[in-house]
Amino acid sequence: MRIIKLCVENFRGIGNLEWLTYRQPMCCLIGPGDSLKSTVLDAVEAALSSRWFSFGEADFTQCDTTRDLKIEVTVGELSKQLLSDDKFGLYIR
Predict the structure, then answer these.
(1) Which residues make Cβ contacts (< 8 Å) with residue 33, sequence separation at least 6?
(2) Residues 6+ apart with CB under 8 A from 46
(3) How far is CA 60 from CA 34, 38, 44, 70, 89, in A?
(4) Using 50, 70 and 90 to split pLDDT, how confident is the model at 89?
C-alpha cells in the first residue's frame, strides 16, 4: 500500500495541506521541531487505522470547532487481500 494523496484541513496546526506523492513516494518527514511532522503522521493514522478516533476541541486549528476538520487519504498499490470483497466488501473506495 502506498499513499498517493493526502488532504488535511483544520487539524491541529495544519490549516490546509494537499500533498500529492504519486511522482515521488513519501518515505520520510524531515524538519525542525514544531514543524508539524507528527501532526501529519497522526492525520494519516486517524484516517487509516482500524481503531476508532474521537476528536476533541484541541484537534481543531486554533480550537475553532465551527470549521470542519477534514482528513482524506488516497492510497494505491493495495494488496490482493485488501482488495478482496470478503475482507472489506463495499467499503473499498
Answers:
(1) none
(2) 53, 55, 71
(3) 16, 15, 16, 10, 32
(4) low
pTM, entire model: 0.79
Look up residue 49 and give its three cell numbers: 487505522
Cell representation of residue 75: 492510497
Q: Taking a C-beta distance cutoff of 8 angstroms, is the pair 60, 67 a contact?
A: yes
Helical segments of 5-65, H only: 37-48
Instruction: Cell numbers for 18, please give them.
Output: 494537499
CB 68 within 8 A of CB 5: no
Nearest to 61 by CA among 16, 13, 7: 13
Q: What is the CA 72 to chain-centroid distance, rounded?
A: 6
Q: Which amino acid is at 50?
A: S
Render pLDDT for 28-37 as a digit per residue (tens, 0 to 9).
888 999 899 9
